[in-house]
Amino acid sequence: MLRTMVAGGLFLLAACVQPPHPPQSATPTAPTPPVTAEAAPVRTLLGPPSALPGFTADAAALTAFRRACPALGKRVDRSGLTRPEDWAAACADPEADPAAFFARHFTAVRLNDGQGLMTGYYEPEIAACVTPAGACRTAIHALPPDLVEIPLGPFMADLTGRSIRGRWDGQRFLPYASRAEIEAGALDGRGLELAYTADPIGLFFLHIQGSGLLRYPDGSLHRIGYAGQNGHAYVPIGRLLRQRNLVQGPIGMAEIRAWLAANPDEGKALMRENPSYIFLRRLAPELDGPPGAMGVPLIPRANAAIDAETAPLGTPIFIDSRIDGQPVRQLVIAADTGGAIRGANRLDLFFGPGPEAARLAGALQSPLSATLLLPNAAAQRLTP
Questions:
Q1: 383: phi then psi, degrees, rounded to nearest 5
Q2: Crossing angle, helix 98-105 and helix 59-72, to 10 degrees?
Q3: Separation of alpha carbons 286 and 270, rounded Å
Q4: Residue 128 phi/psi, 5° resolution?
Q5: Which entry of 34, 112, 255, 332 is 20 to 30 Å from 184 by CA?
Q6: Burial group, residue 96, by CB count within 10 angstroms (0-12, 13-18, 19+)
Q7: Three-class SS of residue 204?
Q8: Can you tell me the distance from the alpha carbon of 296 to that of 289, in angstroms, rounded to the nearest whole number?
Q9: What is the residue-level pLDDT of the chain in tens, covering all 384 positions?
Q10: Looking at domain 123-282, does it have CATH number 3.40.50.1240?
Q11: Cα separation, 33 vs 37, whole angstroms
């Protein structure tokens, strides 16, 4: 997919490419090679969803799918599996029974052997203040106007949907400020501060999740969401902790946060080793969840992030896995993407806000058996 051209120049540019939307993962996961035309997943038709062992669908999944419908007729599917018109019949059907609805309009398809990994993400809450005071001095930044995003598709067809981000100094296109540079004051004095917080570790994890809630001293809550990213490659600090043997045993979000809190100076330096920085924006108060990559509010445990290069956004996915030690078989709707969510059968389940959501998402790393439900018209094109 990424080619070396002009002494590797285009490869170096493309290596900085980030997907359009977090979440990212703080914990170490097995690396997944990038999908190329030569290594596309093997797609196997399995028949009607009702034939899947333990198949079930609930009202939340149906609601999540219908929320995605307005975008499905407009999006370019980077996986190449669907066309906008494939979704029309399902999106027009008022059927109220979830199982009957999905059985009528979809065909089960497996990518490779269907086996993969499921992790989780959530909507964090951090304490905030409007102006800097006392310990509340870590800025929460809006998207800088000089951050430029350049689509690569016009330069090379197989990079369609990819882009690079940086800044133009009048003569050259340069990398944007890194996390360390931003935290050292690279954006100070530009009026980009949405708010401030006394919890830099909490803000770091809010960046990883891609959205969150700010709680002000008067008790009010304000939702903020992803506005952009500085173009630097994401580095999971959990992997660094493991490589350096700084944490023994399993490394999940709780273990990472505990180490950062116990080692404030070393923790600050470690967080800066992830040069990726997320810019945020205030979201409309009427939204009942953070918007995912499709622009619609996410529903806890009914939406998930996937790799849009291997499966279409909007796709129902029947998952067979474990959450908190308990077996789970359910239908979720792919409505988001993430920097660490790469490859076939890689899924990041959204858990919503609150401490319990944080606990479940932070601990989740479970083997996954995943089955896509493609619109019937799209599945028919896969028939030999």
A1: -65, 130
A2: 40
A3: 37
A4: -140, 165
A5: 255
A6: exposed
A7: helix
A8: 8
A9: 221 222 223 222 333 333 334 455 554 443 333 434 446 889 999 999 999 999 999 999 999 999 999 999 888 898 999 999 999 999 999 999 999 999 999 999 999 999 999 999 999 999 999 999 999 999 999 999 999 999 998 998 888 778 899 999 999 999 999 999 999 999 999 999 999 999 999 999 999 888 899 999 999 999 999 999 999 999 999 999 999 999 988 888 889 999 999 999 999 999 999 999 999 999 988 888 899 999 899 999 999 999 999 999 999 999 999 999 999 999 999 999 987 789 999 999 999 998 999 999 988 999 999 999 999 999 999 876
A10: no
A11: 12
Residue 234 to residue 276: CA distance in whole angstroms: 5
SS (H, E, C) 136-154: ECEEEECCCCCCEEEECCC
Check: CB of residue 319 under 8 Å from CB of residue 330: yes
Domain boundaries of the chain, sorted by first residue:
40-121+292-380, 123-282
What residues pair up with 141 in beta bridges, in sequence order? 193
Which residues lie closer than 8 Å to 303 by C-beta, 6 or more apart?
Answer: 64, 292, 332, 333, 334, 335, 336, 350
Query: Which of these, 288, 279, 9, lies nearest to 164 by C-alpha position?
Result: 9
Total residues found in the chain within this entry:
384
Closest to 317 in 3D by CA, of 299, 330, 336, 298: 330
For residue 174, CA distances in Å to 166, 178, 268, 272 come to 6, 12, 26, 20
Contact 21, 359 (CB under 8 A): no
Please check whether the domain covering 40-121+292-380 is classified as CATH 2.60.40.2150: no
- Whole-structure pTM value: 0.78
